[in-house]
Amino acid sequence: MxxxxxxxxxxxxxxxxxxxxxxxxxxxARRPVWRRPCLVDVWAPRVRATPLMFPTKGRLAHxxxxxxxxxxxxxxxxxxxxxxxPVPLGVVxxxxxxxxxxxxxxxxxxxxxxxxxxxxxxxPFGRSQLEGWAASMAxxxxxxxxxxxxxxxxxxxxxxxxxxxxxxxxxxxxxxxxVRDVAxxxxxKHLGAPLPEGLSEPEGDWTVTEVSYRTN
Length: 216
Known about the structure:
The chain has 216 residues and is of the alpha+beta class. The protein has helices spanning 124-130, 133-146, 151-158, 179-191, and strands at residues 5-7, 10-13, 21-23, 52-53, 69-76, 87-96, 101-110, 163-171, 206-215. The protein has one domain (5-215). The protein is built from four helices and nine strands, in the order E-E-E-E-E-E-E-H-H-H-E-H-E. Strands 1, 2, 3, 4, 5, 6, 7, 8 and 9 form a nine-stranded mixed beta sheet that branches. Helix 2 crosses helix 3 (151-158). It is globular.
């Protein structure tokens, strides 16, 4: 049975001095990301899916679910040769049952022209890894869903160097919570800051990106 993927518009929350932007994910060109694939085989039958727009707000976007929710944290390791405490960047949440998959990626990247304190030691090469990572990872997430692969395992096999995806134990889901509710809670726990609502303008040197998918 063919799957149909519905993608929300990618929402970017610019900082105080940044401009507001709201553009469709499909319109965003993939920026070059310096990464090499890990040697992990992931197989699944290829199923063609047609991406459609899915509202960022409203009844469908915040549909409650009682399904289990898997998640992974996204982080940046400053030095692979001498590992340090990684810089937290975001979360990916996935929930599925027999006929539906819902997922959400929420993450932050340094704003153009700004260098967060945590990334002061990152050079031009590392900076190129960080710029546009959320849009690139969101495309990988959608591709995995369309191919009926395990989304988190696929992301972890691709993003496994300095900028990496680390799968965590299943997240607790409270009654009535939506995928975004859980993602926001995990984001706040992992990054120590709340996930912005809508097109708000948080303080600081970061731009926050939020992408959601739902397939039937």
